[in-house]
Amino acid sequence: MALNGKTAVVTGAAMGIGKAITEILLKNGAKVALLDVNKAAGESLMEVLRKQYGPDQMLFLLCNVESDEQFKAAFQKTLETFGGIDILCNNAGILNETTWENMVSINLMGAIRGTYLGLEHMSKLSGGRGGVILNTASMAGKSSAKKAEPLPMSSDGAKGNVFLAPKAAALFPVTTVKTFTLKQLEVLHQPPDQ
Ligand SMILES: NC(=O)c1ccc[n+]([C@@H]2O[C@H](COP(=O)([O-])OP(=O)(O)OC[C@H]3O[C@@H](n4cnc5c(N)ncnc54)[C@H](O)[C@@H]3O)[C@@H](O)[C@H]2O)c1
């Protein structure tokens, strides 16, 4: 997918991989809605990005991916601001096995919630113009599926291998749901054949 002129929603965009994804998107001419729970980090990143890419190319939205209400409001605001959504990056995540309920709630359920919202907005079957959904995954999700540990389970499940992609593909065949690992992030610029 050519990124120039496209609009992307990136969760967990204030730091780390989400920030890197955001910068790649902006560099390639996309507009980006940065969603994150960390207001301070999000706003200070915005200051830097505005100077580099111009004030109208991005917006920061305070959004916890655990909240349906906040997630929906963020999509709505993105639509109102940029006129459409073409790319969703389900990237928000935490790594803390001691608070495994939070990890599953954010890493897995946040990505499922985001995917259904993305499909609702982008699927041609529901009046959208099609699009791409990317999930940031861990190699742990690919290699340790036999272990009943929260990280592999939340990574594998959240990244669509087990549940999300087949189900979403069956429901919304015109929208792409893809699973990528960290090593495959370059596909953002040049996705492989489906
Ligand atoms: N860094 C790695 O080595 C690694 C390995 C495997 C998987 N991952 C996955 O990659 C993704 C990004 O990881 P990272 O290393 O960049 O982490 P990070 O901690 O640097 O960044 C995560 C971002 O997500 C945000 N976030 C956390 N909870 C949120 C929530 N409920 N709602 C919205 N935003 C939230 C944080 O504020 C932060 O900005 C995560 O899904 C993580 O599970 C990372």
From TrEMBL:
Keywords (A to Z) from UniProt: Oxidoreductase
Q: Which GO terms describe its molecular function?
A: oxidoreductase activity, acting on the CH-OH group of donors, NAD or NADP as acceptor
List the top taxonomic levels of the source. Eukaryota, Metazoa, Chordata, Craniata, Vertebrata
List each coiled-coil range: none
Keyword Lyase among record annotations: no
- Classification via InterPro entries: NAD(P)-bd_dom_sf, SDR_fam
What Pfam families would the database entry show? adh_short (PF00106)
Q: What is this protein called?
A: Zgc:56585
The GO cellular component terms are: cytoplasm
| Membership in a protein family | Belongs to the short-chain dehydrogenases/reductases (SDR) family.
Q: Which PANTHER family match?
A: 15-HYDROXYPROSTAGLANDIN DEHYDROGENASE [NAD(+)]
The signal sequence is none
